[in-house]
Amino acid sequence: MFRGFWGLKIVPGKTYSQTVDASFRLSNAALGATVVDELRTSVVLTVDDKSFVLCSLTPGAIEQQTLDIGLTEGEEITFETQGNNEVHLTGNFIADDMDSDYDSDEEESDEMDLSDLSPEELKELIDEGLIDPETLLEDMEDEDYDSDDAEADMRIREITDEDEEEMIEDLESEEEPVPVPVPE
Question: Does the pLDDT at position 148 exceed 80?
């Protein structure tokens, strides 16, 4: 679901402002290769005139920090540091249409309809961190499974008395397994 690398090198004393033209996910902050001083350097993000410290990096102690911050197309953002060390931010651009592999005629909503996805597609979404498996299991437990669902599920079929008798006969008619001697 990610379509490419995103990166920014923040030099102390400079600010980097932009209107996000392509949504991206900020995933890591790291001190630059050359450390100027041993004091803490904080990464600050300003969005819609509100500033937030994303992380504070200290040489020799915390030199990089994993992040998981999505920045959306159209947002006005500014990155800067407070401290004397250079910081590198990295991440990935996010695909424009997360549902491009699925039916585009479906109504858009905040929640993705997972019922039409194959197990492989679900695993891919879980591996990419787009679905929390714990939440997925909770959602599945909450749903009511009724006879209409069972009829639509090709793995489930009704077994008649005749089917049951036939299955029992098949089991009873099977030959007993012959023990194979094991050399000592």
Answer: no
Sign of CA dihedral 52, 55, 56, 59: negative
Residue 117 and residue 131 in contact, taking contact as beta carbons nearer than 8 Å:
no
Spatial CB neighbours of 9, under 8 Å, sequence gap ≥ 6: 32, 86, 87, 88, 89
User: Which candidate, 103, 116, 94, 122, places its Cα nearest to that of 27?
Assistant: 94
In this structure, are residues 82 and 41 in contact, taking their beta carbons and an 8 Å threshold? yes
Q: Judge whether 73 and 16 are in contact, CB under 8 Å.
A: no
The pLDDT of residue 92 is above 90: yes
d(CA 165, CA 156): 18
Average pLDDT, the chain: 79
